[in-house]
Design goal:
- The protein is an alpha+beta fold and 186 residues long.
- The chain has two domains: 53 residues; 123 residues, no CATH class.
- The protein contains seven helices and five strands.
- Strands 1-2-3-5-4 form a five-stranded antiparallel sheet.
- Strand 4 and strand 5 form a beta hairpin.
- Helix 1 runs antiparallel to helix 2 and helix 3 runs antiparallel to helix 7.
Length: 186
């Protein structure tokens, strides 16, 4: 209705009305162009501060994290800590990439496992994540014939990578692992 009233005003004013109509259209286009520029800028202004927070360094005590997960998550099997040499053998991680590590493995009756790594930097953490994902692939191959009932756990393992930290857990309780980890991150 508003638009019709404006147009009828322009028509009733003759030449002056047509001039006003053109100016109004130009102004409208300029406003639309400005709004089209402001919307993406407003979006970026809202999103970029969130990006800087995501890049903040976190702190995680490796031993405490692995121990807490071992104690608070309901595993079917008994998990035992393994040595740095054994970790290097099964994960094939370059020792120079790791600051600290703690790994608990099952007796072999299940695929359950906990591994927490602090890398020297974010790039090393990415290499550790690749090694963890290779470990999952290796375990799938091992358990496919041995204990196929364990494959669902290996299809959806918990893998968390942020900053210099990598947390890996094979269990039936990914949401609980996530909750416990969230409480441990500083």
């Amino acid at each position: 209705m508003h638009r019709k009233v404006g147009i009828s005003v322009f028509k009733s004013c003759g030449r002056f009305g047509r001039l006003l109509k053109r100016r109004s259209a130009k102004y409208s286009k300029r406003c639309s162009a400005r709004i089209a520029l402001l919307v993406p800028l407003a979006f970026l202004a809202a999103v970029l501060p969130g990006c800087s927070r995501a890049a903040e360094e976190i702190t995680l005590n490796v031993e405490e994290c692995a121990g807490t997960l071992r104690e608070k998550i309901a595993f079917q099997d008994t998990l035992t800590a393994i040595s740095d040499e054994m970790i290097a053998a099964i994960y094939r991680i370059a020792p120079e990439d790791v600051v600290e590590q703690q790994v608990y493995v099952s007796t072999g009756a299940t695929a359950e496992e906990i591994a927490v790594f602090e890398a020297v930097d974010a790039e090393a953490a990415q290499r550790i994540e690749t090694a963890v994902r290779q470990r999952v692939t290796d375990q799938k191959t091992s358990f496919a014939d041995y204990l196929p009932a364990e494959l669902p756990k290996l299809e959806d393992p918990f893998v968390f990578v942020k900053g210099r930290y990598v947390v890996f857990c094979v269990s039936d309780h990914n949401e609980e692992v996530k909750k416990e980890l969230k409480a441990l991150i500083k």
